[in-house]
Design goal:
- Helix 3 (107-117) packs across helix 4 (131-139) and helix 4 crosses helix 7.
- Helices cover 35% and strands 16% of the residues.
- It contains 13 helices and 9 strands.
- The protein has one domain (2-322): Ribonucleoside hydrolase-like (Inosine-uridine Nucleoside N-ribohydrolase, Chain A, Alpha-Beta Complex), CATH 3.90.245.
- The protein has a 9-stranded mixed β-sheet, sandwiched between helices.
- The longest helix has 17 residues, at 225-241.
- By secondary structure, it is α/β, with parallel strands linked by helices.
- The radius of gyration is 18 Å and the shape is globular.
- The structure holds beta-D-ribofuranose and calcium ion.
- Beta-D-ribofuranose is lined by residues 15, 17-18, 42, 83, 127-128, 153, 168, 175-177, 254-255.
- The site of calcium ion has 10 residues, from helix 1.
């Protein structure tokens, strides 16, 4: 266990895969979860905040503050999610109504205050649209160099075909978190903040992130409530995303690639790329356009670091550890 725990804000929209990330953040002994900031994404933010509270209550961790963001993106209507997280957003677990409440502060203020309190120490794992983070950056641009790092599940770059064959936004070219609030993604990606994006090329690449039978058995052996819940979510994802007739099997909770990469950055191979976020037409809204030309490249585009691949063995190992093994349970 680390002496100084790594300070984390989880900006999320639980969401099946987001909820597993919350459990990982609560369980891993090296992490100090400062707050959860709930976005409108998989569901509007009143529902995602309530789901975050449900997960905290389920694990008896009601000491963690949850702040609720706006009910819609920065400038758009809240769109319909084609990807299914179940009726309750938590894979149809139907946990009881939470008895705890969200705090009386906006996520942007929570992010600003924590970053100013611990300059250079706070990491953000962002597994949702970036509305809250964009607002924080607009309200206080001085926080940009003080944010230690951001890991964002966002974009479809074209490193692998899965960027588009598994596109989750509601058009052929985009990933859901950027699609929902492309203006917010643009603000954050262009801010110069220390960000690593994990696009669907990697986060939804079944060859890399499908959990193996051996990993599932290891999770089963942990035996704590978070491991049990994660197994149920993995099963839910498998049942709802695999297309058996086409031989396509998908069981990985997408957002956990960000949480696990934060826990162990070495698992990612990344590349600095020039990227623009499309805020335009219905057909391509939310597309993250990587200018990969050798000649005539638009050098004025902003540079971000993006995941090219993930070490599958490391990911699976950290996934298991984050649910309980690192805490010495077995
Ligand atoms: C993202 O969209 C949501 O459905 C998931 O929670 C994930 O954050 C993937 O595009
Ligand atoms: Ca999410």
């Amino acid at each position: 266990m680390m002496e100084n725990k790594r300070k984390l804000i989880l900006d999320c929209d639980p969401g099946t895969d987001d909820s597993v990330c919350i459990m990982m953040a609560l369980t891993h002994p090296d992490v100090e979860l400062l707050a959860i900031t709930a976005e409108s994404g998989n569901l509007p933010s009143d529902k995602t905040a309530a789901n975050a509270l449900r997960i905290l209550e389920h694990l008896g961790r009601t000491d963690i503050p949850v702040a609720q963001g706006m009910l819609h993106p920065l400038v758009r209507e809240y769109p319909k999610d084609p990807y299914c997280h179940g009726e309750d957003g938590l894979g149809n677990h139907f946990f009881p109504e939470p008895v705890t409440k969200v705090i009386d502060r906006f996520p942007a203020n929570v992010i600003i205050d924590e970053v100013m309190k611990y300059p250079g120490e706070v990491s953000l794992v962002c597994t949702a649209p970036l509305t809250n983070v964009a607002m924080a950056i607009m309200m206080k641009p001085e926080i940009v160099p003080l944010i230690k790092e951001i890991y964002h599940i966002g974009g479809s770059y074209g490193f692998t075909d899965y960027a588009f064959t598994n596109a989750t936004g509601d058009n052929p070219m985009s990933e859901w978190n950027v699609y929902v609030d492309p203006e917010a993604a643009k603000i954050v990606y262009e801010s110069g903040v220390n960000i690593t994006t994990i696009g669907l090329d990697v986060a939804f690449n079944p060859e890399a992130v499908n959990l193996s039978d051996e990993t599932l058995e290891q999770i089963r052996r942990i035996g704590n409530p978070q491991a049990k819940y994660a197994l149920e979510i993995i099963d839910y994802i498998d049942k709802n995303n695999s297309i058996e007739e086409q031989g396509i099997y998908i069981n990985g909770p997408i957002d956990t690639t960000a949480m696990c990469s934060f826990l162990c950055p070495d698992m990612l191979t990344t590349k600095e790329i020039k990227v623009a976020v499309d805020t335009g037409s219905r057909l391509t809204r939310g597309m993250t356009i990587w200018d990969r030309r050798d000649h005539f490249r638009w050098e004025n585009l902003h540079t971000i670091r993006s995941a090219v691949s993930i070490d599958s063995d490391m990911y699976q190992k950290v996934f298991v550890e984050a649910l309980g093994n690192a805490a010495g349970e077995s």
